[in-house]
Amino acid sequence: MKSNRLPTSLIAVLLVVLFAGTVLCRSQVEKLRGKEVTLEEVLYMPSGKTVKRLSLGYSSLLADIYWTRAVQYFGNKMNQGSMRYDLLYPLLDITTDLDPHLIVSYEFGSLFLSQPPPEGAGQPEKAVALVNKGIRENPSYWRLYFTLGFIHYLDRRDYKAASEAFLKGSEVPGALPWMKVMAARMAEHGDDRSTAVYLWKAVYDTSIDPQVKETAVQHLTSLRAEADIEELEKRVSIYKGRTGVLPSRWLDMVRAGLLPGLPQDPNGAEYKLLPDGTVDVQDPAKFRFIDRDRNK
Amino acid sequence: MISRLTAITLNTFREAIRDRVLYNLILFVLLLVASAPLFGQISIGMERLILVNVGLSSISLFGVIIAIFIGIGLVSKEIEKKTLYTILSRPVRRWEFIVGKYLGLIMTLVVNTTLMTAGFYIALTFTNGLHKTDALLLVAIYFTVLQFLIVTALTVLFSTFSSPIFSAIFAFALFVIGTFAEDLKNFAAISKGAAKLLATAAAYLMPNFASLNVIAQTAHDQGIGGRLILFNTLYAMLYSATAVLAAVLIFERRNLK
Amino acid sequence: MFAIEIQGLSKDYAVGFWKKQLRPALKPLNLAVKAGETFGFLGPNGAGKTTTLKLLMSIISPTSGTATILGKSFLDPEVKRRVGFLPEQPYFYDYLSAHELLDYYARLSGVSLETRKQKIDGLLDRVGLGDVGKRQLRKFSKGMLQRVGIAQAIIHDPEVVFLDEPMSGLDPLGRHEVRELIQGLKDEGKTIFFSTHILSDAEALCDRVAVIHKGELRGIGAINEIRASVAGRSEVIWDGAHALSTVSGSLIESHVTGETVRGIVRSEDIDSLLEQLRRVRAKLISVTPLHGTLEEYFLARTAEQEKVIS
């Protein structure tokens, strides 16, 4: 008996096959397009204001989408070890045009922008511009001043600007007291290690983001090692002064009474004594923020 | 079979025309005429770019709106109004009906788009003169038609089991989600566990309109590779076929009122 | 040879909030219609007539049972080339003209281009729509749409025609014309299966009828057999109340108003009654056969609780 419809099982199989086909084609399409084509459209947009108008009132949702894209873009690039983050600033600019009150995009976005590659885009001037925009739009949010000062200090080494930022921030109602302290320290001892330690401790104590805390720990560890190295090299000079030669190993200095034991870095590895009398860590990769030119 | 399919396709087309769908072209022309000089005054030297963006985006948007508005009623209207009774009492197979209706709406959209494209290029000639690179824009328009294939297939699918209002909502929602398809995939990439599984499934299930939107690139004279055109075409055809097949599945088993 | 064979066709609808209860719209139906027969499917509104037709046309699917049309399964799409259907209160695409609709439908039924060109105008004339062929259907009255409905049911010259309440919504002139049309189809030798609740139409046109009520077949038979099974009556009115005593034995009923008597008598007893009235010099006013033979059969069949097939 002839039925007037196609058998269900046949249709089901066909559906699965066709859909599998779409999945395959789509993978090919995405591979051919490359990851950044959608993002690159950001370069073509006339201005964030136009995008905002076009978004018909859904601008803050669109801002969230663009912020997510910015984070994805940054993460992907960093995983690839890239040295260029060209689309980062346009993405952040559009994001903050769409939602000027999306604080997180100013805070983190500017940090991504200002850090030197490969950790960031290495564009501290653009980062400063971004944070200033954030401050303009959110004048009561004092933490942005902290971010601003931080960027001036860390990536631009402009201690005067950093101090001014901390000072202005300290005047915002609700600002924590150490903003004033930071302002003072920046003004007097901008390049000092103690200032750096103070700053990073403040970051560690006040931040809730685990990644930021981790970065702070890294910095503090490097500063610790820096201090150790300075002290060790001083004692090497003393040894030379007494004996006329450089020590060939740590044991020599221990025997000379200049060291209580074999010196270890904050990670527990032994410091290296180099033939020219300088000291270094075993694994520089673990201490990326050591700065030999820093003042005490 | 061919005769019946052709008859249903042409009749669906005829219905759309008599429903005055082509009047949307008037609005389109007005938009084109207004856009270039009006917006061009705001940013110097941007006249062509504005015209291209407005023109191509309108072709896409108008088409999607037509696809949804006509598509939601394609099947449900016939069931409601019982015009189907005298059709199904003839040797017409139910799948022929669905496919014929689908092809009829596609035909309407292709005709509409062709007329719009002609108008667009005329406007382009008057504003900026025609250049060789303007041919690239045809790829963007072709991809827009591929989008129509998918949107129409989805609305026909919804039309077989859902009332017009819900069909419109579903179709519109899918259009929006499909536009942000790549963000959905990103989300799937960063989630873990069960959420990752669900998000990945959703990402592939949703139509990918992001890859079919090359208006920005072609507006800036960027070419589109041949392989990309091929795979996008295959994707659109396979995805539409899946949706139409599902529509047939539902419609064949449906008891009418 | 049977043109239509219905074998146990039934339809239950799932009702209630959870769709758990079953409401039987059609209980298992067994019925056969010979080729060339005009078959009336009678029943009150909601009896299951339209359900039966929708099942045969595959508009809805049966809960159980099957059927054949012209020897082929009712599910075979090809058999529909030889079948025409007029639904109850038909709806057509109102943006088409009558001519366009017939052309479209004929094409769907497999009629060739030449045949279509030849036959459509003639058919429009035949159903009385000759001068409005180019007008859009949205401007048609109910009666005109009914005619279009009949036209589309026969444009492809089917052997079997199904009509659901073909007279509904028509004025007396329209009903007369549709009756003529159906008679014409009958003369062409087509098998006609039509449902109605208007008994006079069935009586006039059908060879056989079936009575259906509450989804069940209650009776089936040839028209003249049914007539014979239910005695016919006549009404006799005369002046002369004095005659009552003489004739009252023959009367089934009588009503007196002054001198005028209205009596109901069995039709075969009319002659003897008239003879009696003449003898007592009563003044005869009128003799009217009472129609309703089929009506009585119908009422009897639809009143009973149990199923009776004579």
Question: Secondary-structure blueprint of this entry?
Answer:
The complex is a heterotrimer of chains A (296), B (257) and C (310).
Chain A lengths: L7 H26 L3 H8 L3 H7 L4 H21 L8 H11 L4 H12 L9 H14 L5 H12 L4 H12 L7 H12 L3 H14 L3 H34 L6 H6 L16 E2 L5 E2 L16
Antiparallel strand pairs in A: 1-2
Helix pairs in contact in A: 3-5, 4-5, 5-6, 5-7, 6-7, 6-8, 7-8, 8-9, 9-10, 10-11, 11-12
Chain B lengths: L1 H17 L5 H17 L6 H28 L1 H6 L3 H4 L5 H35 L8 H23 L4 H16 L1 H10 L2 H13 L9 H5 L6 H27 L5
Chain C lengths: L1 E14 L5 E14 L3 E5 L6 H8 L7 E6 L2 E2 L9 E4 L11 H11 L4 H14 L15 H13 L5 E5 L7 H16 L3 E6 L2 H7 L2 E6 L2 E7 H7 L3 E7 L4 H4 L3 E7 L2 E7 L3 H10 L3 E8 L2 H11 L7
Parallel strand pairs in C: 3-8, 3-9, 6-7, 7-8
Antiparallel strand pairs in C: 1-2, 1-4, 4-5, 9-10, 11-13, 11-14, 12-13
Short description:
Chain A has 13 helices and two strands, in the order αααααααααααααββ.
Number of helices, counting only DSSP H or I runs of 4 residues or more of chain B: 12
The dominant shape of chain A is flat
State the helicity of chain B in percent bands: over 70%
Major sheet characteristics of chain B: none
Into which percent range does the helicity of residues of chain A fall?
55-70%
Number of strands of chain B: 0
Structural class of chain A: mainly alpha
Number of strands of chain A: 2
Order of helices and strands of chain B: HHHHHHHHHHHH
Class of the largest domain in chain A, according to the CATH hierarchy?
Mainly Alpha
CATH topology of the largest domain in chain A: Serine Threonine Protein Phosphatase 5, Tetratricopeptide repeat
* Rounded radius of gyration of chain B (Å): 20 Å
Q: Regions of chain A with pLDDT < 50 over 5+ consecutive residues?
A: none
Q: CATH H level of the largest domain in chain A: which superfamily?
A: Tetratricopeptide repeat domain
Please give the largest β-sheet of chain A. Answer: 2 strands, antiparallel
